[in-house]
Write a structure and sequence with these properties.
The chain has 361 residues and is of the alpha+beta class. 25% of the residues lie in helices and 25% in strands. The chain contains seven helices and 19 strands.
Length: 361
């Protein structure tokens, strides 16, 4: 059966992954889910000027828990109360840091996910690094996603202005994130790893009135961004896999020849209200065909809309009011059923057979 580590992020765009128009309103098997991933307190005070945002939810599954980050990214517990107070105080904060900032996103096995109002991403760390000295793919996947999100945030305050004609450049952001990760994992804090990268940045057109939501999709490797239009019951966009050879995707990191500037692919997708954006590691498309993903999402949205037992009085149309979390949970459940069945047919098995490899499930 294919390896299964499935970060799935979902959002919908409403006038966000679903998309909403912004209105003025004052993570042994490990499973995890939530609405958004943690961000520093100061980031809550910084808002983009975009009229759109993602209405989000995420669900994760990993066959093993993530490895702890090494120092200096995570402070070990103090040896005693005689340690300097600053060290003791810092050791009580279990959140990882780099360059004095909390590392964005969360870790799922060797993978990393980040879920925010205008940016979602899923990086698939190569687990084989866990057997190598100084190997830590989970650190690499998380750092690249962290620095990528920071670059996108910094530029968003300029490009999201209604008076700005400039466009986001997510490939450039990813290149800078890759370079910063190289520096952060170099001596004297040397750590090795590689990771795929895929992200979706929500923006809008400035040339039209009213503004239209535009999705900037960037991919390097075999993780996937997929955009669904539930009202038409169709997939309107998905990224293409990038492989060196079967089961060896393009990846960023130690000893890899791939770089964002050279190998990352960026597409622009015009969105509509209630479109659904999925960011998935290969654990989902390796186990579910495209039509199965589409039908699972559509059924989850219908079930969410028809569920009247909730005490919430929020709008549920199109998956509003927390429905994207339910969508992500149901999709991960479906992929996990196939991944754990040795007799199930799967896209991964089909590709392996095409390559002349004996494979079940």
């Amino acid at each position: 059966m294919p390896p299964f580590r499935a970060p799935t992020l979902s959002g919908r765009l409403r006038l966000g992954a679903g998309i909403r128009r912004r209105r003025c309103v004052s993570s042994q098997a490990i499973t995890s889910d939530g609405i958004t991933t943690p961000i520093p307190d100061e980031a809550l005070l910084q808002k983009t000027k975009s009229p759109f945002y993602f209405d989000t939810g995420y669900a994760l599954y990993a066959k093993r828990p993530p490895r702890p980050f090494p120092p200096p990214f995570l402070s070990p517990p103090s040896g005693s109360f005689s340690d300097p107070l600053s060290t003791h105080n810092r050791s009580r904060d279990r959140r990882p840091y780099v360059n004095g900032e909390m590392i964005r996103g969360i870790t799922n096995g060797d993978d990393a996910v980040l879920v925010g109002e205008n940016f979602i991403g899923a990086n698939d760390g190569v687990g084989a690094w866990a057997t190598r000295p100084k190997g830590h793919a989970g650190l690499w996947s998380r750092l690249i996603l962290h620095f990528w999100a920071l670059e996108a945030e910094r530029d968003a305050y300029v490009t999201s202005s209604n008076t700005s004609d400039s466009e986001p450049d997510p490939v450039h952001y990813l290149q800078k994130a890759y370079e910063q990760t190289l520096i952060a994992t170099s001596k004297p804090t040397e750590w090795h790893g590689t990771t795929t990268a895929c992200g979706a940045l929500l923006h809008h057109t400035n040339q039209k009135s009213p503004a239209e939501p535009v999705l900037y999709v960037t991919n390097l490797g075999d993780s996937q961004i997929m955009v669904l239009r539930p009202k038409d019951q169709e997939v309107i966009y998905k990224t293409s896999e990038q492989w060196h050879w079967f089961d060896c995707p393009r990846q960023l990191g130690t000893n890899s020849p791939d770089t964002p500037n050279t190998n990352a692919v960026m597409d622009k997708v015009i969105l509509q209200e209630n479109d659904v954006v999925l960011a998935m590691s290969d654990g989902v498309p390796d186990n579910l065909w495209e039509h199965e993903i589409l039908q699972n999402v559509l059924e989850s949205i219908r079930n969410w809309e028809q569920n009247t037992t909730s005490e919430s009085s929020e709008d549920r149309v199109g998956g509003a009011g927390g429905g994207m979390l339910f969508v992500a949970q149901e999709l991960v459940k479906a992929a996990r059923v196939i991944a754990e069945d040795p007799f199930a047919e799967s896209p991964f098995m089909e590709r392996a057979v095409e390559e002349g490899l004996a494979m079940e499930g």
